[in-house]
Amino acid sequence: MASTLTVDNIVGATLSSVVDIPNHVIGMSHDTWSNTVGTQSYTSTSYTDMAGTDISYTPKKSDSLIVVQWNIQARALAPSGQDLRYFIRTALDGTGSREYDIVGDNLGKLGDSVWVPQWINITQQFNSTGSAMAFKVQTKAHTSGNYLQLPHHGDNLNHISKTVWEIAQ
Fold first, then answer.
1. Where are the domains of the chain?
2. What CA–CA distance (Å, rounded) separates 61 from 154?
3. Where are the beta strands (DSSP E) in 2-113?
4. 25-167 adopts what CATH topology?
5. Reported pTM
6. In this predicted model, what pLDDT tens digit does every residue of 92-106 receive, in sequence order?
7. pLDDT of 150-168, one tens digit each?
8. What is the Cα–Cα distance from 44 to 2, expressed in whole angstroms?
9. 54 burial class (0-12, 13-18, 19+ CB within 10 angstroms)?
């Protein structure tokens, strides 16, 4: 026998704004950044915050899973005589997290400096803190002259998107 359940509204029994169904999205935030401020070059060999990668989210529950995704359009320089190499890491509330070592072998060793397009896609999970959480991406150069750049070829031509999902557990 088939049954049909039709409702106009579902309200949580204890938290009227949250219906807790394990492994389902209970909150989401999305934002984009378009480079209108000029080319951003990250030449430091110490971690630096990347423009446009920050996003904040306040979880609805303290025991949920937070999934953050960044999509970054950039370019990297492989100077003459060097490999292309830079580092990326995510950060939660100012503390660095997982680090990614990006390497392109022999690109600059051909005798010319080479700019290489980069499409950086990072998805990372964090445990909810139950209070406001601030996420961002940081980068550092491997050596002097070898770095990542957010180019500016004209307003709104370089974009970063970031999305946060909160998953009930």
1. 25-167
2. 41
3. 25-34, 40-42, 48-49, 55-57, 65-78, 84-92, 95-104
4. Jelly Rolls (2.60.120)
5. 0.85
6. 998 998 899 998 876
7. 988 777 676 899 999 999 9
8. 64
9. middle
